[in-house]
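Researcher: Quick sanity check before group meeting.
Model: Go ahead. Protein one:
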Amino acid sequence: MIARRVTQLVLLFTIAALAARPSAPADPPAAPNGGPAQVTIDNFTFKPATITVPAGTTVTWTNRDDMPHTVVADDRSFRSAALDTDESFAHTFNAPGTYPYFCSIHSSMVGKVIVRKR
């Protein structure tokens, strides 16, 4: 009898905890219409980690860290030189698709550009 009551309480708390969790955003951050698409490299992360842009958009990455970083597509379709503090790299995305990328110096740093049709 006690075991059954404990099981019911655990189930109740589990349901309450799941209901209280914030939901994930429906879409990743998008570049403003007609505006520049910016990714900041700071504290060993790409911010935002995922950005959604329309085809034809130029995305610019700017390094705000004190360490050099790179921006390299997983498929090597684009690649920056090592970017020192306050240096930038830009790439224009013409074709819709998903473009994962990383820092070749710090491989745990990853990001993604999602390109949608205009």
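Researcher: Fine. The other one?
Model: Protein two, sequence then structure:
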Amino acid sequence: MLALAAAVLALAGPPGWKPDVRAAAHYAAGRRGAISFAVRSGRHVWGRRMDRVAPSASTVKLILLVAELRRLGDRPRTRAEHRLLTPMIRASANGPASALVARLGRARIEHVARLGGMRHFHLRSPWGLSTVTARDLTRFALRFHALIPRRHRGYAMYLWRTIVAAQRWGVFRAAPRGWTVRAKGGWGSGTGWADHQVALLSRGRRRVAAAVLTTSDGSHAYGKETLRGVFARLLRGL
């Protein structure tokens, strides 16, 4: 764990940069629903209501991906495993996530979440009700690469970077030029029950993790616009 922490601290954002938390919080205060967010770079974290517990929706699929790849260890992935993991991340398919929860079990999944620094995570049934916080998700995002066996790291990072076009909303529309964006969304089947994103932005060795969690948005369209607005303000100046 000490080596993991050291590796994460080495991946900081631009020197002297800070997210515009004040502008993001002011914007969030004028939007419907409950909104929390966190931004993490190296040993620094900033945010609003960072420890508010929210239902994970599909953000939990990143934890499932890491848990399954750790289960595989150094052996190659099979076609069957590709058919589970690739659509689960790139298109947020629910069937593979349910299959993996059954395969991996609560203990293994929660162990991986703890390794990723998620102190408030508990697997629930159904899995979309699992508990997350913005602070925990940013910690997990920065540790994501280091948690995965070396053989599977490129594959996992590729999946996270190549989300299908229909789901490239929120941070994808707000990130500054020159940064590679990896982001996983979670939403309540278009109802506005929850609209979340956890993102890892990279440029060379620079890394910034950000998570925005929204609930009771009223509609998915409104939730997506809230995400875009919060991320746009947080990421100014990158």
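Researcher: One line on it for the slide.
Model: The CA atoms of residues 77 and 152 lie 8 Å apart.
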